[in-house]
Amino acid sequence: MRFKLFALSLLATSSLATAEPTPKEQLLQPPPTAQHYTISSTAGKHGDIWGWKTDDGKLAHRMSMSLRGWITETDQLTTLGADGRPTTIAVRGYTDSGDATEDFSVDANGIAHWKTTVDEGSAPLGNKRYSAYGGPWLASAIDIDALVAAGDKGVDLLPGGRASISIGAATEIDGPSGKEAVKLAYITGAGFSPSAVWLDKDNRYFGNAGVISLLPAGYEAVGPKLKEVQDATEAVMVRDTAKKFLSPANRTPTLVDNVLLFDSIAGRYLPGRAVLIADGKVRKVGAAGSIKLPKGAVKIDGRGKTLLPGLWDSHLHIGGSDWNLLQNVATGITNYRSPGSIIDESLSIIKRRAAGELIAPDGKVAVIIDRKDPLAAQGALTVSSDEEAVEAVRKIKEAGLSGAKFYTSMTPAWIAPAAAEAHKLGLHVSGHIPAGMRPIEAVRAGYDEITHINFIMMQAMPQHVVDKANTAARLEGPAKYGKDVDLDSAEMRAFYAELSERKTIIDPTLVVWEGSLTSDGSEVLAAYAPFAAISPPAVSRSWKIGGYPLFDGLTRDDFKASYAKMVGVVGRLYKSGVRIVAGTDGYGLELVRELELYQQAGLTNAEAIQTATIVPARMTGMDDRFGSIEAGKMASLILVEGDASKDMAALRRISTVFLDGYRLNADELRKASGFSGMPE
Question: pTM for this structure?
Answer without folding.
Answer: 0.92
